[in-house]
Amino acid sequence: MKLSFSNSAGQVLAARIDFPVNRHPHAFAIFAHCFTCGHNLTAMHNISRELNLHGIAVLRFDFTGIGESDGDFVDTTFTTNISDLEDAANYLTEHYEAPSLLIGHSLGGAAVLCAARRIPSIKAVVTIAAPFAPDHVSKHFRDKIDTITSEGRATVDIGGRPFKIGKQFIDDLENHRLDENIKKLGAALLILHSPQDRTVSIDEAAKLYTAARHPKSFVSLDGADHLLSDDADSHYTGRVIAGWSDRYLPVPEKAPIRSDHNVAVRLGEEGYTTEVMVRQHHLTADEPVKVGGNDYGPGPYELVSAGLGACTAMTIQMYARRKKWVIEEVEVHLDHKKDYAQDMEASDEKPTKIDHFERVITLKGDLTDEQRERLLQIADRCPVHRTLHETVRVSTVLKDE
Questions:
Q1: Phi/psi at 87 (nearest 5 deg)?
Q2: pTM score, two decimals?
Q3: Which fold does the domain 2-245 belong to in CATH?
Q4: pLDDT above 70 coverage of the chain, percent
């Protein structure tokens, strides 16, 4: 959802907030983009998606003078970035809920380390490819430093785009050191960095980790580049953050979904990667690569097969336990395909394809042949099996946005 908020200087900052599909997150995060990147970077979108699947809402925005936000980049500093993060936290607190997680990419990572102490609600901080010293970013335009110093500003090329850098930006970077901010962070810290990062050396991550106090964690993004341009790397990063944050964010145990329905599904305008929430549980559905998907999760029919398999196993064990028959383990293996109907009624008509589920059951336990035969009959009585054999009605309504 696109939105905007004003910073302390009265400038309007462009932003968006990504919600879990059920619209009821258990925690809010703020994501600070890398130097000159903007909040629409694909990697940020992918990481936000993974956090959404974990029940975390993510606010990402353009710093002052970047992207669609007001202000001139030449007038900004590292200090204004930190201030923008505080303003973002104030916006969330006023309109939704105080943020408990800060995430920063590259220079945004350095910014969240400085901002965390100023936002009392923060319980966890994550840096991705962040430098230990903010002025590390100056190496991108070191050939222009003399011009910037003497003339007060200069146009530099960063990632193929021109940016005006002011002298106050460089001076401000040099005046910021992260040592004290890291030592007095007051929140759990996760450092993510790739050994192959050619923009910010992994040695910077080692400095961050050494300066930090526990609880602190480091995860290598082996093989990734600085911008996490491979979708697989950014999705992995999101899953790591989501899993790690469980220990530090207020995750409710078995909290019921706050929605009109028990199952909620969302798919964006590209691809087929689909977010699924079932009460408080989350998963991803997708299609195989050969049909245009990313294969990040099971397909719709595979989910139906999984439902049939789970129901079969539960029904068998439920019956066996009632009879006091000991089954050590039930395995159900399934495949789904479209096959031609073989019944006599269809033979006189045009061949018709029907859905065919092949189900193979393995029962581990000391059971007699009679018991096994009875359990095979019981398998056909599982509720999902019976539903698939019944006439099913699906009522659909279109809800206003």
A1: -65, -35
A2: 0.75
A3: Rossmann fold (3.40.50)
A4: 92
